[in-house]
Amino acid sequence: MSIDAASLRASSAAAQPRGRGRRSTLASIGLHGALSVASLIAVFPVFWVVVVSFKPDAKAIEATPSLFNDSSLDNYTDVLTGAKGSFLAWFGNSVLIAALTTVLGVLLAATTAYALSRFRFPGRPWLLLSFLVVQMFPFAVLIVPLYNILLKLGLQGSALGLVLVYCSTAIPFCTFMLKSYFDGIPADIDEAGRVDGLSPLGVFWRLVLPLARPGLAVTGFYSFIVAWSEVAFASAFLSAADESKTLAVGLQVFVQQNRAEWGHLAAASVLVAVPAVIVFYAVQRFLVSGLAAGSVKG
User: Fold this and answer.
1) Whole-model pTM?
2) What processes in GO biological process is this protein linked to (predicted)?
């Protein structure tokens, strides 16, 4: 029995869903135009900071500064050589604090999230609730109690004290994210590992963590950004000495009550953003899957 082409086209058209129609050409043009305008609005401030970073301080505040006239690398040279602030010391402090916060925060959050995902123990619901409640408090409210705690522990003014503070704010969110991700990993993997003779720690370290790399990338990136760009805690809990500041706090040197070095501030801001961009591109392939898994599973 032969089937003609018209019948095939008719059956194919009937099989297609009728709920969604093709977008019209005018609607597509309007949508892409709106997205283009929104993208330009979002990118322009960053572009202008880069432009200002090449301008002398006096030219940076002009109403209509030119893009190429008076441009030089003097601002970057002054910032990197220490002629304006102790940028390299700030950079080293920020790298140390951000790295310790990322490693310690992800390690503690991963072990806590795994325990909450796999084990049932007294107080488990209240522990989850406490993590949620902690996220509801503004950071400014926590400065005074955290300051008193660090003072009693002898950690006030030290980098280790600031790392512990950052971990206390990052771990609750990271725990919630990783618990949702661990819930999506079949428990049969744990059983198979124990049958093969692995300890609970071995199962967690050798089997579960490699499967949770997207979730670890998301939480690691979050912990890094928290420590890299935070200002309030770093201003309150670090020593007032210039060499003890982080980058986010050190940038305030360029804007004082009686003067503002906008060109140097813009150059330092660009340099501060570079490590964050590098870290983002290093983990970007895990971010989408990790965020999606952490938001819908649980």
Assistant:
1) 0.80
2) maltodextrin transmembrane transport
